[in-house]
Amino acid sequence: MKSIGRHMIMEMWGCSGLNSTDIVEQALREVTEAAGAVLLDLIVRPYTPQGVTGVAVVSESHVMIHTWPEYSYAAVDVFTCGKKAYPAAAMPILKRLFSPERVQVMEMTRGIFSDD
Amino acid sequence: MKSIGRHMIMEMWGCSGLNSTDIVEQALREVTEAAGAVLLDLIVRPYTPQGVTGVAVVSESHVMIHTWPEYSYAAVDVFTCGKKAYPAAAMPILKRLFSPERVQVMEMTRGIFSDD
């Protein structure tokens, strides 16, 4: 079976830095580069009273970070297509920048098709 | 157990309209409104030689559409937090706008925690 993309879904608990737009932007830029993707658009937006949403649209799909500082929780998605991209490269960067106490990772294969 | 968000993941095959930035933008706007979310930022970007990526950052998280017209395939994510949002409202809109022959839907609960 062939497929179109890989979608890494991460749940991070016990994080720090979740209210910082600078850290979220840095994470998006570093993850994009480390994953071998090309950054096309970047949105980083603080929420009121707290939390940040960051989106990197990349040539190979997207990287997304939503943070809830009140729960020390961040939801992170890295969706890449193509064989060159390496979404797992996100993990050491996210661990360094957000210092999570606990991380759950799931990888979904998107767009599975057969050649038949 | 309580949770922070609901993440609907949709795989749509046999679609039409996948090369139209207008249709992708319309889908993002209609899905956002129907899901009870508030639109904050919108990016719709055509790819070369084909395909479209659209992102709606909403107050309740995000709606994302990536299309691969060469495979008649679209990947759609609707991530909402809060009890008022209704991500399942996306489905009839997506079916009307992209006429998929086959749809797979998965819903993930994001940010599960206990009160203990």
Strand content of chain A: over 45%
Rounded to the nearest angstrom, the radius of gyration of chain A is 14 Å
Largest sheet of chain A: 6 strands, antiparallel
Question: Within the CATH hierarchy, at the fold level, what is the topology of chain A?
Answer: S-adenosylmethionine decarboxylase
Oligomer: homodimer
Tell me the series of helices and strands of chain A, N- to C-terminal. Answer: EHEEEEHE
Low-confidence stretches of chain A: none
Estimated structural class of chain A: alpha+beta
Number of domains of chain A: 1
Distance between the termini of chain A: 9 Å
The most extensive contact between chains is:
A-B, 31 and 31 residues
Plain-language structure description:
The structure is a homodimer of 116-residue chains. Chain A has helices at residues 21-34, 90-98; strands spanning 2-13, 39-46, 52-58, 61-68, 73-81, 102-113. Chain A has 116 residues and is α+β, with helices and mostly antiparallel strands. Chain A has a single domain (5-110), classed as 4-Layer Sandwich (S-adenosylmethionine decarboxylase). Chain A has a six-stranded antiparallel beta sheet, with helices on one face. In chain A, a hairpin with a 2-residue loop joins strand 3 (52-58) and strand 4. The longest helix of chain A has 14 residues, at 21-34. Chains A and B meet through strand 1, strand 2, strand 3, strand 4 and strand 5 of A and strand 1, strand 2, strand 3, strand 4 and strand 5 of B.
